[in-house]
Design a protein that fits this description.
With about 475 residues, this protein is mainly alpha-helical. It has helices at about 5-10, 35-40, 45-60, 65-80, 105-115, 135-145, 180-220, 235-240, 270-275, 385-410, 415-420, 430-435, 440-470, and strands spanning about 85, 90, 245, 255, 260, 265-270, 320-325, 375. The chain has two domains: about 5-285 and about 295-380, no CATH class; about 390-470. The structure holds zinc ion (ZN) (2 copies). One zinc ion binds near residues 250, 271 and 272. It comes from Zygosaccharomyces rouxii (strain ATCC 2623 / CBS 732 / NBRC 1130 / NCYC 568 / NRRL Y-229).
Length: about 475
């Protein structure tokens, strides 16, 4: 055996606790389908319409806390690894090499990409692989692997946070009503996260137990036709794991074929692929002109905010994407034969062009991010544009509010500097110069500012309205 998860423990993730399940996290409800990509990828109608409808449901505020909670829970449920949802020997949800908070992709899109065989499934990785293992040894090792890696049950961030009865959806009684409304909201959010973390562990544990029980039952059942065919046959386990490849990012051993970066054709496991994403929206880095005062981000035009596509982890080419050539020697699980019925072809039946041949690596040249075979990082987080718009709106609102405060200060404070000098945008003016300047009619100036302010606010509202429509 010897296939421990020690290597994972060294990584920053939470494999300290007992077995099972995934981490917790701030899952962001987030799927606006990029229609064009959806079409070019040839995803099923079902997939596209689902993504679109959830997109309109999920976008932008105006949802009750309860609705948001349910969306987060439904996302989390899609990240549970289920033994009876498999594709070519792998699964539709990650094994748990990264903690739960790090899983912020759109799970329904990734599941569809896997079942469409455009993205490698999430395999259960092997910690290491020894070519000297016999067929029986390998099968025994694979058979003993858990469906999901161990998860820290009590991460520090949830220490001392009450979770109450998980069977009841309502947990208002856990919130300290003597706190301010704002503090209560904060507390509520923490409790929700801690509860969701526990629920995910529970959901995954149930699945792990079912997997184990079915395996034991299968071993006891002498009649092969009565065995649970959702469980992989020993032949399938041997076929997929006998010839594997190490992912250069997580150093775990996976069955071939893996995904390959579209630019430099390097292998990458799906679990690492879903981790690669755009950075947060930011202002472009500008040349600093020492003669001018530095503009703080608050003063910049929110429309200048940018979001840059993820770059390749290997060669830094922008617009990271992968291609995947599904195996031709085993179409099992969803869209294929039951994994339990799989029988390995005899040696003389093996096709020379067998997709399992790992020596060749990817059989395709570099591809553009628009190529219909390519799955980009943006495709599995189609909300990036909405996030950018939202951040722009947030900044626009903040700046509009700041102006409102500024204007009202001018109204109540006759000595407010800007009653004499409204042109504050041009930077600090020396006091002497300012006091010597005569403003012909300060009240008229003030009225102008208020009108401008009203226009700005209505523009912000209009922009927000349009933006939420766009994402519907
Ligand atoms: Zn990896
Ligand atoms: Zn590359």
């Amino acid at each position: 055996m010897g296939n421990t998860f020690a290597k994972l423990d060294e990584n920053e993730n939470a494999f300290k606790g007992r077995s099972t399940s995934v981490g917790s996290g701030t899952m962001r409800p987030n799927n606006i389908a990029e229609r064009r990509r959806g079409v070019s990828m040839g995803l099923s109608n079902n997939v596209r319409s689902r993504a679109n409808s959830t997109g309109s449901q999920l976008m932008y505020k105006k949802k009750s806390t309860r609705e948001r909670d349910l969306i987060k829970e439904s996302f989390a449920k899609q990240l549970v690894v289920r033994y009876d949802e498999s594709v070519d020997g792998g699964y539709l949800a990650p094994h748990g090499c990264y903690t739960f908070e790090k899983l912020d992709y759109d799970p329904s899109l990734v599941r569809s990409l896997i079942t469409a065989r455009k993205l490698a499934p999430f395999y259960i990785p092997l910690q290491d692989f020894d070519e000297s293992w016999t067929r029986d040894e390998l099968i025994k090792i694979v058979d003993g692997l858990p469906l999901h890696a161990a998860v820290n049950e009590n991460p520090e961030e949830f220490e001392d946070i009450p979770i109450g009865n998980l069977k009841r959806q309502n947990f208002d009684e856990l919130i300290d009503k003597s706190l301010s409304k704002k503090e209560q909201r904060k507390q509520r959010s923490k409790i929700f996260k801690a509860r969701l973390h526990r629920k995910r562990i529970m959901w995954q544990e149930q699945e792990n137990v079912a997997f184990l029980e079915q395996k034991l039952e299968s071993k006891r059942e002498p009649n092969p036709s009565k065995r649970n065919l959702a469980l992989p046959s020993p032949d399938l386990n041997h076929t997929i794991y006998k010839k594997g490849i190490e992912c250069p990012i997580c150093f775990l051993y996976y069955p071939e074929p893996l995904n390959y970066s579209r630019c430099c054709l390097q292998p990458i496991c799906t679990e690492c692929f879903v981790q690669i994403k755009r950075g947060d929206p930011h202002f472009p880095h500008e040349e600093v002109d020492p003669t001018k005062p530095v503009t703080s981000d608050d003063e910049k035009d929110p429309n200048l905010l940018i979001s840059e596509p993820a770059s390749c982890a290997y060669c830094a080419t922008p617009n990271f994407g992968i291609t995947y050539q599904p195996p031709t020697n085993r179409k099992t699980g969803i869209g294929g034969m039951p994994p339990g019925s799989y029988k390995a072809p005899r040696d003389d039946e093996i096709n020379v062009n067998d997709g399992s041949d790992s020596e060749e690596g990817p059989r395709t040249p570099s591809k553009s991010p628009e190529d219909p075979e390519v799955v980009t990082s943006d495709m599995i987080r189609p909300d990036w544009k909405a996030k950018l718009d939202k951040e722009r709106l947030r900044l626009a609102r903040r700046s509009a509010n700041a102006t409102a405060i500024h204007v009202s200060n001018q109204l109540v404070d006759p000595d407010h500097p800007s009653r004499r000098d409204s042109n504050t945008d041009s930077g600090p003016t020396p006091t002497t110069a300012r006091s010597q300047r005569l403003v012909p009619n300060p009240m008229a100036e003030l009225e102008n500012q208020m009108v401008e302010q009203a226009i700005r606010l209505s523009l912000v509202d209009e922009e927000e309205r349009k933006s939420s429509q766009r994402h519907r």
